[in-house]
Design goal:
The protein is 92% helix and 0% strand. It is an all-alpha fold and 116 residues long. It has one domain. The longest helix has 86 residues, at 30-115. The radius of gyration is 42 Å and the shape is rod-shaped. It starts with a helix and ends with a helix.
Length: 116
């Protein structure tokens, strides 16, 4: 039974009170202890509010980053499609010019070969 009591006291709030009293070096009144508890509670609630604000800020930054990446993806995809379209049009133009050159050049070459 004494081992259970020692283990229980090691992890209890009561031991925290004993440590606090021993650290301060004097006895605390109930009012002083209540003031100390209220101060700790207020500080913990403030830290919790700061934590919530920080979490919301982090989520906002993550959403903004995601939005920026999506915009960059859309712009890059548009640029890529536009460049492919320009390439296809240039290739069509080259085929058309080749067809025209072959249409007009072959009779000229054959007539030049016939004259020589």
């Amino acid at each position: 039974m004494p081992q259970f009591t020692a283990a229980f006291l090691r992890h209890s709030v009561y031991l925290g009170i004993i440590r606090l009293v021993s650290l301060i070096g004097r006895m605390l009144t109930v009012k002083q202890w209540d003031d100390f508890v209220r101060f700790n509670k207020a500080r913990a609630e403030k830290e919790m509010c700061n934590s919530v604000l920080l979490r919301e800020s982090i989520l906002h930054i993550l959403q903004q980053t995601s939005s920026d990446l999506q915009a960059q993806h859309t712009a890059t995809a548009y640029g890529y499609r536009h460049r492919l379209h320009e390439y296809a049009m240039a290739l069509d133009e080259l085929y058309y010019q080749k067809k025209l050159v072959s249409f007009f050049a072959i009779p000229l070459f054959s007539s030049l070969q016939g004259r020589s």
